[in-house]
Design goal:
Elements lengths: L4 E3 L3 H22 L3 H24 L6 H4 L3 H9 L12 H23 L17 H36 L4 H6 L1 E3 L13 H19 L11
Antiparallel strand pairs: 1-2
Helix pairs in contact: 1-2, 2-5, 2-8, 5-6
Length: 226
């Protein structure tokens, strides 16, 4: 018999997850439809999300922290040998943790390259493109495109893994990412995750200021003038 429920995901992690999905889709749409102003705004929002996730990976709740879910090769291999038999984990499993790390790295590469990118005509560019030559900006655009394809591949793997657990193992990974809670395993002694709204607000405020400065190309003098 299943026990009561335990909270394994805090609100910032869940908001990050679903907001990132929405913004990635919007960025894709705006890029494909040459809505470049919206594409830049969406990309900056994705950058802010990713920077917050890095911050929260160091200062967030138990299951949000990188130290909790980034495991060594031995732990990952041991998990793979009996993944279907493993009980639910406290947050990301050892393989899923590396999947999250890889996706964060690729998305950071994607948005960073976008900041420096310039199109073939030199008419559209990221807010930091002026710090590179035209050829450097074009190289950044190539990296931006390659990272986008890599992100699509990783997202495909991510969805496949969710379907594997959902359909073949019988473990629901989606609902806990919505509600934050999952059923507690029989005999499992895991506490609810706890997080600090004050710490989250301070980190988010600092990141918003940084991303705003990036959006201005770090030309802050007179940036508030209309």
């Amino acid at each position: 018999m299943m026990g009561d429920k335990v909270r394994i995901w805090d609100a910032p992690v869940r908001l990050f997850h679903w907001t990132l999905i929405s913004l990635f889709a919007f960025s894709w749409w705006s890029g494909e439809n040459h809505e470049m102003e919206w594409h830049r705004i969406s990309g900056l929002a994705v950058l802010a999300l990713l920077l917050f996730r890095l911050f929260w990976g160091l200062a967030g709740s138990r299951t949000a922290r990188f130290a909790q879910f980034i495991k060594g090769p031995g732990t990952v291999l041991a998990y793979l040998r009996k993944a279907a038999d493993e009980q639910a984990t406290d947050g990301h499993n050892p393989l899923g943790g590396w999947s999250v790390a890889a996706l964060l790295l690729v998305l950071l590469t994607l948005v960073t390259a976008g900041l420096f990118s310039v199109d073939v005509d030199g008419l559209e560019s990221g807010p930091l493109a002026e710090y590179l030559s035209f050829d450097g900006g074009r190289a950044a655009a190539e990296i931006h495109e390659t990272a986008f394809k890599a992100a699509l591949a990783l997202i495909g793997l991510h969805i496949s893994a969710i379907l594997f657990y959902q359909c073949l193992v019988g473990r629901d990974l989606l609902l806990p990412m919505i509600t934050g809670r999952r059923e507690r395993e029989p005999g499992e002694k895991v506490d609810d995750v706890r997080w600090s709204p004050v710490r989250a607000a301070i980190g988010l405020a600092a990141i918003v200021v940084l991303v705003w400065a990036i959006s201005k190309g770090f030309h802050l003098a007179g940036a508030g003038d209309v």
